[in-house]
């Protein structure tokens, strides 16, 4: 083993290893520092990505909540519209029924009025015919003195019959 230590190649190899170790130490530190910096940068990017993902999740949850609210509001509007349409349909049907009833009553009233007017006209015409026939009969059968006496009697009774 002594020969091994006495050999200059051994000492060159040992010096080379020491030199490489001494020179590699800063290089390893630089590499390790670079790797640490890269790891810190990646960690910062991961933290930022997590924060962005959390923010996106919050925005998504908020959007879903708003969408649900809008959906409920739309359903409420549709339900209110349907209820309002049903109320208007019932109201319109009732108004139409009432209008038909009023028109029917008005028609029946007009018919009754026309009927009573026709009956009154027939009575007046019958009275006029009866008066004309009675006047003709009286004129043919009663003399002037008897006629004057009947006229005076009718005038006297007229006040009692009218009141």
Describe the protein's topology.
Elements: H1 2-6, H2 8-141, H3 144-162
Task: Provide a brief overview of the structure.
This protein is mostly helical. It has helices at residues 2-6, 8-141, 144-162.
Describe, in plain words, how this protein is organized in 3D.
With 163 residues, this protein is mainly α. It has one domain. The chain is 97% helix and 0% strand. It contains 3 helices and no strands. The model has no long low-confidence stretch (mean pLDDT 88).
Gyration radius, in Å: 63 Å
Number of spatially distinct domains: 1
Give the helices and strands as they follow along the chain: HHH
Helix content: over 70%
Q: Could you list some keywords that capture this structure?
A:
163 residues; mainly alpha; 3 helices; rod-shaped
């Amino acid at each position: 083993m002594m020969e091994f230590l006495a050999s200059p190649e051994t000492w060159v190899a040992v010096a080379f290893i020491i030199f490489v170790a001494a020179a590699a130490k800063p290089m390893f530190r630089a590499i390790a520092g670079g790797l640490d910096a890269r790891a810190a940068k990646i960690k910062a990017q991961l933290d930022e990505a997590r924060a962005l993902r959390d923010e996106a999740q919050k925005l998504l949850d908020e959007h879903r909540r708003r969408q649900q609210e809008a959906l409920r509001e739309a359903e409420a509007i549709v339900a209110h519209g349907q209820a309002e349409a049903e109320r208007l349909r019932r109201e319109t049907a009732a108004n139409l029924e009432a209008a038909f009833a009023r028109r029917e009553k008005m028609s029946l009233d007009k018919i009754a009025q026309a009927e009573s007017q026709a009956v009154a006209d027939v009575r007046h015409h019958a009275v006029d015919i009866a008066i004309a026939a009675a006047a003709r009969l009286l004129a043919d059968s009663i003399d002037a003195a008897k006629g004057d006496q009947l006229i005076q009697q009718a005038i006297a009774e007229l006040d009692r019959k009218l009141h």
